[in-house]
Specification:
Length: about 300
């Protein structure tokens, strides 16, 4: 199974001393924090940032692995939250390793080796969060997520948005002793795919010393013998592009003998000694041009 991980990122844990049953504090960054300092500690991190304090970058299609550990035997609940507010429950789940009881000073990876699922990063772009909540006793999260009868895999989550998750969890932890639960967060950035590098096209291969149109973004170039076809992007006009090549060819010793202009296309013929050069410039959609140079020798 390939589960699309559309969220992820947990903020730094903030702990403040307080009364034994102080109310859980909702935080825009950490989602929910225990205002009481506890002996119980939980840590969550991603495979690209073992410290759990950074914001590593993932791109759509990459696989991500989450890790968690506790310093005391505890029940750990992992939630993911993406930049659009979608909430997923990662742990507990109904796979073989889906038990959310973690032993003290051990580390668990999700997915673990051999697990029948993966977490595949997907849009929306932005900061995603993973929230780890550890408790010394099991928590009743049926109002947040539940498994239907006979359901396998991951639970259906009923809450939406970070605020909704924080409010729901504050109700869940309210009945238990304040010192018996704690949270941690880890963040990562879902970034758009890196753009393909522009091809290194500076010259028109079939005409020595003839450069590409100034400041144009090269797209592609194909060459067959003495013929070269180049595509590039520029905001210049069709005539502006043609005039550049026309004047440049003149400086290179070519004399124009024919010019034909149609909508979205200009063609011309040039001669230099016994060499003949045919040029065809086409205006393509999206501020893109294609220019062909065909030499007879």
């Amino acid at each position: 199974m390939h589960k699309t991980l559309r969220v992820t990122a947990l903020s730094a844990l903030m702990l403040l001393s307080g009364a034994a049953f102080a109310q859980a504090r909702i935080s825009p960054q950490s989602i929910i924090v225990n205002p009481v300092e506890t002996e119980l500690q939980v840590n969550v991190w991603t495979d690209k940032d073992p410290s759990g304090n950074g914001r590593p970058v993932y791109r759509p299609g990459e696989r991500i692995r989450l890790h968690a550990s506790v310093n005391r035997d505890a029940y750990v609940y992992l939630f993911s939250l993406n930049s659009a507010g979608q909430v997923d429950l990662i742990l507990p789940n109904r796979y073989d390793d889906g038990d959310n009881f973690l032993r003290a000073n051990t580390r668990r990876a999700f997915p673990g080796e051999g697990d029948p699922y993966t977490f595949d990063v997907a849009a929306p772009y932005g900061v995603s969060k993973v929230l780890a909540l550890a408790s010394l006793e099991p928590l009743d999260i049926d109002d947040i997520a539940r498994f239907e009868n006979g359901q396998t895999g991951f639970a259906e989550v009923t809450v939406k948005t970070q605020t909704g998750l924080a409010q729901a969890l504050s109700i869940v932890v309210n009945p238990i002793p304040q010192e018996s639960w704690v949270t941690d967060v880890a963040e990562y950035q879902v970034a758009a795919p890196a753009p393909a590098p522009a091809p290194n096209i500076a010259y028109v291969n079939s005409v020595p010393l003839l450069r590409l149109y100034p400041n144009a973004l090269p797209v592609s170039q194909t060459k067959r013998g003495l013929n070269t076809t180049t595509q590039f992007e520029t905001s210049a006009s069709l005539r502006g592009v043609f005039n550049y090549y026309n004047s440049t060819l003149g400086r290179l010793g070519y004399r124009r003998t024919v010019r034909t202009e149609r909508p979205n296309q200009i063609s011309a013929r040039y001669v230099r000694g016994n060499q003949e050069l045919r040029v065809e410039l086409q205006d393509l959609p999206g501020k893109r041009y294609e220019i062909s140079f065909n030499r007879n020798r």
